[in-house]
């Protein structure tokens, strides 16, 4: 599937999804076909970005979730430390899922665990110098460029519009999910 310069419903067929949308509209409504094609396009673009991200992570011997833990700790700023509950907010995954990632990162020496002074029952997870080095190498090897390259064909205004539209879609999907839970 190639990139499309024409948006869904523009009347111009420029890629496989546009052709599929036209065929789907024969058996269902145009609105249903457009909604399905847009969903399929979002999923396809996400998969392409994920494939590039997975390849970069593998080059460092990490799974995507593990690199994301390192990045989350780094984004928090010095001393690059958080509790599992704070990390959970970044990932929307279970504590068990975070625990598995933290165990591997600790075994590799990329993070270290500590104890929260105010509550000895709580632990902290801190990025080590080795972990910082891995992040630095990841950035230099093109990990961050991957994200920029994905948007390079769009001007800044289009990127902002896309972000706003995706945010709106995300919030609507979260609401729909909450309404159906």
Task: Give me the secondary-structure topology.
Elements: H1 16-27, H2 30-58, H3 64-75, E1 81-82, H4 84-91, H5 95-108, E2 111-116, E3 119-127, H6 129-140, H7 143-150, H8 156-179
Antiparallel strand pairs: 1-3, 2-3
Helix pairs in contact: 1-2, 2-7, 3-5
Give structural notes.
This protein has 181 residues and is mainly alpha-helical. Among the domains are: 14-58; 64-140, Orthogonal Bundle (Arc Repressor Mutant, subunit A), CATH 1.10.10.10. The chain is built from eight helices and three strands. It has helices spanning 16-27, 30-58, 64-75, 84-91, 95-108, 129-140, 143-150, 156-179; strands at 81-82, 111-116, 119-127. It has a three-stranded antiparallel beta sheet with strand order 1-3-2. Strand 2 and strand 3 form a beta hairpin. The chain is elongated. The chain starts with 15 loop residues before the first helix and ends with a helix. 14% of the residues are buried. It comes from Novosphingobium taihuense. Residues 35-171 form the HTH marR-type domain.
CATH topology of the domain at 64-140: Arc Repressor Mutant, subunit A
Structural class by sheet pairing and helices: mainly alpha
Count of DSSP strands: 3
Task: Report mean pLDDT, rounded to a whole number.
Answer: 83
Q: How many alpha or pi helices?
A: 8
CATH class of the domain at 64-140: Mainly Alpha
What portion of residues belong to β-strands?
A: 5-15%
**What CATH architecture of the domain at 64-140 do you see?**
Orthogonal Bundle
Terminal residue distance: 35 Å
Helix percentage:
55-70%
* Neighbour order of strands in the largest sheet: 1-3-2
Uncertain residue segments: 1-8
Largest sheet: 3 strands, antiparallel
Shape annotation: elongated
Task: Compute the CA-based radius of gyration.
Answer: 21 Å
Instruction: Find the CATH superfamily of the domain at 64-140.
Output: Winged helix-like DNA-binding domain superfamily/Winged helix DNA-binding domain
Q: Strand-and-helix sequence, N→C?
A: HHHEHHEEHHH
Domain HTH marR-type: 35-171
Keywords: DNA-binding
InterPro entries: HTH_MarR-typ, MarR/SlyA-like, WH-like_DNA-bd_sf, WH_DNA-bd_sf
Protein name: DNA-binding MarR family transcriptional regulator
């Amino acid at each position: 599937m190639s990139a499309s310069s024409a948006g869904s419903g523009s009347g111009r067929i420029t890629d496989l999804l546009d052709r599929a949308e036209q065929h789907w509209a024969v058996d269902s409504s145009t609105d249903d076909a457009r909604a399905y094609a847009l969903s399929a396009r979002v999923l396809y673009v996400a998969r392409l970005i994920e494939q590039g991200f997975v390849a970069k992570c593998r080059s460092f011997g990490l799974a995507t979730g593990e690199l994301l833990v390192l990045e989350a700790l780094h984004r928090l700023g010095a001393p690059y430390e958080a509790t599992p509950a704070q990390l959970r907010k970044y990932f929307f995954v279970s504590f068990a899922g975070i625990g598995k990632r933290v165990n591997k990162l600790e075994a590799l020496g990329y993070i270290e665990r500590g104890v929260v002074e105010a509550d000895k029952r709580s632990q902290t997870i801190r990025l080590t110098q080795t972990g910082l080095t891995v992040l630095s190498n990841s950035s230099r090897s093109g990990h961050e460029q991957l994200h920029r390259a994905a948007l390079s064909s769009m001007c800044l205004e289009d990127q902002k519009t896309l972000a706003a539209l995706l945010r709106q879609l995300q919030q609507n999907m979260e609401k729909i999910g909450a309404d159906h839970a």
